[in-house]
Amino acid sequence: MNIPEETLQNRNSNAIELGLEDPLTAPSIARAVAETMSVTWDDLVGRSRQARYSQPRKVLAYLLRKNTLLTLQDVGDMLGGRDHSTVLYWVKSCEKERKLSTVLNAMVATIERRAAEYVPQQPGAASS
Predict the structure, then answer these.
(1) What letter would DSSP give residue 123?
(2) Rounded CA separation 4/114 (Å)
(3) Using one digit for the tens of pLDDT, what is the confidence trace for 19-75?
(4) Fold of the CATH domain 23-118
């Protein structure tokens, strides 16, 4: 990914300090989106405007903003150097589509469940 690991770690630490339960990480979300929507990391950060690549990219941007403390610019940098306004457009677009599509809602829920499975356990955390 194009965001320094230190930035990702700081954002996740902040999420824990703010009391977000089991915060998802950017890598776990990206992996879950890629696997669920049958695309590669290169597809997610690529420039293709084909729906089979742009829809997963939009969902990834939405989930990163919803579940992490990454800024719009952080998400844009992660997704191939996109501008923060592009990321904002994707997030709002995905929010609108979720209001109309039960299929998209189910897919987002599946991705969030998968991403939670990929989050590494915090040191000292109780295992279930």
Answers:
(1) T
(2) 24
(3) 555 578 999 999 999 999 999 999 999 999 999 999 999 999 999 999 999 999 999
(4) Chromosomal Replication Initiator Protein Dnaa; Chain: A; (1.10.1750)
